[in-house]
């Protein structure tokens, strides 16, 4: 098996034993990336930087004092600012922007010896569920329906990350999740993705979408890899005032595989009308797997679930309209060519019309509307009250002894690129129906691949944990993963 | 509440995004659809509920009021579309 197909855990062990060098491991990924252009996952390749980092990693490995991530080749979502490397959030408004600073997450990963192979495709400003709003064009899912060559979405917004990991172009990737942008693409591509508790990972240097919801996390081939990589990404950062100053446990050590006596909640409100029978079956299989491992399963109610999606689509655009006000053509990125007599207002308006894509413009305007005088209370404040009720639903069940909650990750398997293009934006938003509640309540959530649908596409389940209990959550996910025994890979066509 | 063309024009203006007059009607329709979806929130009894300001019960920490960097004018200006004599340059603002 060529080294690009390895897990982080396997590569770490091989690197430490000297069975492979970080340079050779990196080379195998760079070769896979060049052969994988058909996936459009990597949008800025950084082979020279990767090899330089790999050479340093080899020196460190030689000293015998290397951390777990040392020499591990990663893809980095384009939303992370990386020094001297284009960081565009997949938007034309940031064309040509090369940061003079490094995001805290990438700085931590690099300090741990990780190697950056390049920047990964995504929806523009992380606004989308199919990677179709990117200025780089669609990222493509390595999976296809049996007997079909229709190109499928890898999900979004972290679509390039999901595609790259599923196709073994890198060992793992960073993602970010505002309403499901790590978990939905992970589920669509048969990989693992965890959104940590809000505040666990520093947001500094990550292009902001909705600051009260955004969290970064790892997207990996296994739960163990997520545990390893998450450990290297989190920790207190004085540069993010919402970053939690609490100890980071050894997540990998928490993977005991023992969940006997744990109580798993099954929320009845997640059984949606019109949900495909395959998703319901998968959910029942997941319940059986956790029971078989000795957990107790209990029906629970999260009564405000139905209102999570409309609340999210008030709050997230409101915060986005404020965050994206900074793209004005003055300090960085695109500035429109001005006509004679144009003043500063024309500069703003033309720059933003040219630089932002349609979905981003729409969300900025929705946010502007719900924050505008006369509508602030009716929409924005009401949504924040509903958000408080959604969080209270979770607080209540956790207080009643629930350790983790099991739900489907997505309402369907991956759909075809372009299939939703004529649809009402709301239909696309429904992709996030099982994942947004977790962001609104600030909880950790993880998507784990559990099975294949009738067309041979991966399906995932989501586990939701108590605040700050990523360790317990990962252990539950590890049990689900072992029992599901999901080993299928996309057949190579690219 | 349906968004009419005048409201769409006003929102685009507030958002500082140029929208051609001929595109306003389609924009108003899309926005109306989205805002209509949000109307479901009116079904929820929110009496006595405080709007959430922070998802985790934490106090935002203040850092020590000390200078931590500076003297990086070239770096600050490096990505500017137009910079002159150490400043960001923009069209004339004051007559």
Please provide a written account of the structure.
In chain A, a hairpin with a 5-residue loop joins strand 10 and strand 11. An eleven-stranded mixed sheet of chain A has the order 1-3-2-4-6-5-10-11-9-7-8, sandwiched between helices. Chain A is 37% helix and 13% strand. With 494 residues, chain A is α/β, with parallel strands linked by helices. Chain A starts with 7 loop residues before the first helix and ends in a 10-residue tail after the last helix. The model of chain A has no long low-confidence stretch (mean pLDDT 97). With 95 residues, chain B is mainly alpha-helical. Chain B is 32% helix and 4% strand. Chain B has three helices and two strands; from the N terminus they run αααββ. Chain B has helices at residues 5-14, 24-38, 73-77, and strands spanning 83-84, 87-88. A two-stranded antiparallel sheet of chain B has the order 1-2. In chain B, strand 1 (83-84) and strand 2 (87-88) form a beta hairpin. In chain B, helix 1 packs across helix 2 (24-38). The longest helix of chain B has 15 residues, at 24-38. Chain B is flat. The relative contact order of chain B is 0.09.
SS content category of chain B: mainly alpha
Helix content of chain A: 25-40%
Structural class of chain A: alpha/beta
What does the overall shape of chain A look like? globular
Question: Order of helices and strands of chain A, N to C?
Answer: HHEHEHEHEHEEHEHEHHHHEHHEEH
> How many H/I helical runs of chain B?
3
Helical run tally of chain A = 15
Strand residue content of chain B: under 5%
| Shape call of chain B | flat
pLDDT averaged residue by residue of chain B: 93
The percent range for helix content of chain B is 25-40%
Q: Main sheet of chain B: which strands, in order across?
A: 1-2
Helices and strands in order:
The complex is a heterodimer of chains A (494) and B (95).
Chain A lengths: L7 H10 L4 H14 L6 E4 L1 H16 L10 E5 L26 H8 L3 E6 L38 H8 L5 E6 L5 H7 L2 E4 L19 E6 L2 H11 L29 E5 L9 H16 L3 E5 L7 H16 L20 H12 L2 H14 L4 H24 L4 E5 L16 H5 L6 H5 L4 E8 L5 E8 L4 H15 L10
Chain B lengths: L4 H10 L9 H15 L34 H5 L5 E2 L2 E2 L7
Antiparallel strand pairs in B: 1-2
Helix pairs in contact in B: 1-2
């Amino acid at each position: 098996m060529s080294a690009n197909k390895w897990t982080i855990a396997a590569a770490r062990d091989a690197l430490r034993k000297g069975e492979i060098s970080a340079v050779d491991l990196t080379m195998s990924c760079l070769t896979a990336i060049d052969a994988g252009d058909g996936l459009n996952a990597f949008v800025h390749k950084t082979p020279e930087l990767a090899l330089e980092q790999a050479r340093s990693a080899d020196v460190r490995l030689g000293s015998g004092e290397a951390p777990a991530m040392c020499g591990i080749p990663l893809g980095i979502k384009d939303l992370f600012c990386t020094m001297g490397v284009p960081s565009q959030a997949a938007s034309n408004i940031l064309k040509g922007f090369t940061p003079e600073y490094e995001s805290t997450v990438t700085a931590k990963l690099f300090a741990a010896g990780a190697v950056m192979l390049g920047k990964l495709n995504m929806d523009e400003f992380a606004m989308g569920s199919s990677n179709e709003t990117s200025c780089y064009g669609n990222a493509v899912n390595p999976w296809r329906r049996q007997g079909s060559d229709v190109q499928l979405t890898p999900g979004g917004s972290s679509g390039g990350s999901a595609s790259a990991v599923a196709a073994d172009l890198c060992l793992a990737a960073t993602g970010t999740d505002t309403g499901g942008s790590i978990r939905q693409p992970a589920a669509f591509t048969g990989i693992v993705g965890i959104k940590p508790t809000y505040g666990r990972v520093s947001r500094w240097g990550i292009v902001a979408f909705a600051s009260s919801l955004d969290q970064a996390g790892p997207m990996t081939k296994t739960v163990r890899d997520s545990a390893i990589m998450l450990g290297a990404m989190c920790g207190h950062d004085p540069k993010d005032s919402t970053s939690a100053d609490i100890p980071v446990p050894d997540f990998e050590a928490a993977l005991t595989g023992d969940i006997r006596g744990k109580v798993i909640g099954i929320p009845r409100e997640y059984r949606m009308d019109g949900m495909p029978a395959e998703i319901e079956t998968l959910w029942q299989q997941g319940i059986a797997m956790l029971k078989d491992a000795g957990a107790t399963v209990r029906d629970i109610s999260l009564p405000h679930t139905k209102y999570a999606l409309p609340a999210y689509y008030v709050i997230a655009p409101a915060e986005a309209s404020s965050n994206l006000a900074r793209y004005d053509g003055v300090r960085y990125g695109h500035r429109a060519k001005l006509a004679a007599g144009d003043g500063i207002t024309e500069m703003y308006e033309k720059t933003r019309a040219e630089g932002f894509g349609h979905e981003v413009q729409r969300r900025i305007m929705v946010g502007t509307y719900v924050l505008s005088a006369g509508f602030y209370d009716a929409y924005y404040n009401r949504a924040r009250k509903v958000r408080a009720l959604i969080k209270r639903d979770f607080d209540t069940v956790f207080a009643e002894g629930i350790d983790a909650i099991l739900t489907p990750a997505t309402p369907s398997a991956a759909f075809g690129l372009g299939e939703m293009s004529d649809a009402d934006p709301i239909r696309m938003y429904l992709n996030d129906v099982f994942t947004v509640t977790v962001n609104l309540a600030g909880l950790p959530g993880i998507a784990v691949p559990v099975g294949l649908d009738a067309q041979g596409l991966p399906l995932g389940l989501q586990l939701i944990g108590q605040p700050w209990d990523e360790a317990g959550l990962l252990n539950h996910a590890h049990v689900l993963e072992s029992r599901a025994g999901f080993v299928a890979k996309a057949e190579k066509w690219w | 509440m349906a968004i009419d063309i005048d409201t769409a024009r006003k929102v685009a203006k507030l958002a500082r995004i140029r929208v051609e007059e001929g595109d306003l009607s389609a924009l108003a329709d899309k926005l109306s659809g989205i805002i209509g979806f949000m109307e479901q929130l009116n079904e929820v009894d929110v009496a006595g509920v405080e709007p959430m300001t922070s998802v985790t019960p934490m106090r935002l920490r203040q850092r020590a009021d000390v200078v931590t960097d500076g003297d990086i004018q070239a770096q600050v200006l490096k990505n500017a579309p137009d910079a002159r004599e150490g400043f960001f340059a923009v069209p004339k603002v004051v007559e």
